[in-house]
Amino acid sequence: MRIRRMTLREIHMKLLAPFETSFGRTEERRILLIEAECDGATGWGEVTAGETPGYSPETTDTARHILADFLWPAVRGKEFASAADFGVLMDRVRGHNMAKAGLETAVWDAEAKQKNVPLHKLIGGTLMEIPCGVSIGIQDSHQKLLEKIEKELAAGYQRIKIKIAPGRDLPALEAVRARFPKIRLMADANSAYSLEDLPLLRQMDRFDLMMIEQPLDWDDIYAHALLQREIATSICLDECIHELHHARAAIELGACRIINIKLGRVGGHRNARAMHDLAQRHAIPVWCGGMLESGIGRAHNIAMSTLPNFVLPGDVSASKRYWPEDIIEPAVEVTPQGTIRVPEGPGIGYAPKLPLIERLTVARAVFD
Prior knowledge:
Blueprint (H helix, E strand, L loop, with lengths): L2 E19 L2 E15 L2 E7 L12 H16 L7 H4 L10 H18 L4 H4 L6 E3 L1 E4 L5 H13 L4 E5 L6 H10 L5 E4 L9 H6 L8 E2 L7 H8 L6 E3 L6 H10 L4 E4 L1 H4 L2 H13 L4 E3 L6 H10 L23 E2 L9 E3 L9 E2 L1 H7 E7 L1
Parallel strand pairs: 5-6, 6-7, 7-8, 8-9, 9-10, 10-11
Antiparallel strand pairs: 1-2, 1-15, 2-3, 4-13, 12-14
């Protein structure tokens, strides 16, 4: 295989409602889409970096720079046997996993279309229906939070995740548990706490949480190992896990009991599969986190979530939760049972809505 052309588009998509976390508030997404033409087949990928370096050091702008000035020169004119081998061509560029994943996932989509098979089968997926949860940002009031949770439960979602931050944690969890004592509930801190907050974090044990996600510094595996020894609630690591050796260190140190795998954060399907397999060997369950993706990124998340150790409901939810109109057809839908049926068409199984993508495009660059 060889990439004959890469088209890089920046599109702007306004969220239906602002999404707030401990590191910021998002109202509109600046998304980079990558269209890769590989020997007669066209694949699509999405760069999931945010507009600011709050979640990750990468941003929309850094990803564009790295793709244009380093990753495209690294792969231009190069032959590779398959998408599984493609990532090696980019290994000489350190970090910038979200930029790499945008291009790598487009190549996986192209290969699946060449072979006329669904992407989920090409990567080794086995599930035909995936369980879904939702992520709810920090709300202005407990009443609004409870109303949102009630709405999502009525839609069938199997797990509720709420974002927390210092001063906006225990009272919110108290309110949720008082109203919904039995739901599957988790809290996501996005690195908002430190070990000095141990007394507060210990109090979260009484809320019967599935997990608390990334409570401490975004790059500190060791501190999470210390914390996990002191609390009963399972820690799930997110921001700490960028490479396979990070996952190995976290598992061996006992820093977590669960791992969140995000395609962008780990660099694409090749690395996600390796991380999935490592966790499975150590009986560590994994699930798919979300990055406010458009339908392109969401479709890749669905494919990844069919791997057998994705046993916990992920943040892969319906298109209509985020967008007035998604850029794929059909839109991603969730069943009343809180699942997504995996598409059986070639590649990602969803068709990009090219006229809409063109209307949303604010910048384009073509690399031959």
